[in-house]
Amino acid sequence: MTASVMYNRPLQNGNWANTLLWGRTRSLEDNSIFNSYLFESTVRFHTRNYAWTRIENAERSNELILGRIPYRPAS
Asked: Which of 17, 31, 33, 48 has the highest CB neighbour count under 10 A?
């Protein structure tokens, strides 16, 4: 499940764009819920200069790392 909000604002000699994103995953093994968040922002100023930042917090289980398959694949 995901949800996101984007915001864009023109500046005198540039632009400012932002994204705020939330995502949720569920463990197939024990139905635990994991939330992840992301904020990303880019500003263009004086026509050709850019500043960019990204902040992310991703909560995950170790199912992909361990390689366990908690369900039986269809044959």
From this structure: 17
Q: Which residues pair with 55 in a beta bridge?
A: 39
Residue 14, amino acid: G
Please list, in sequence order, all residues whose beta carbon lies within 8 angstroms of the beta carbon of residue 74, skipping any fewer than 6 positions away. Answer: none
Which long-range contacts (C-beta less than 8 Å, at least 24 apart) are formed by 51-55? none
What is the pTM (predicted TM-score) of this model? 0.72
DSSP calls for 40-60: EEEEEETTTEEEEEEEEEE--
From edge to edge, which strands make up the β-sheet containing 49-58? 2-11, 14-26, 33-45, 49-58
pLDDT at 50 over 70: yes
Distance of CA 57 to the CA centre of its chain: 8
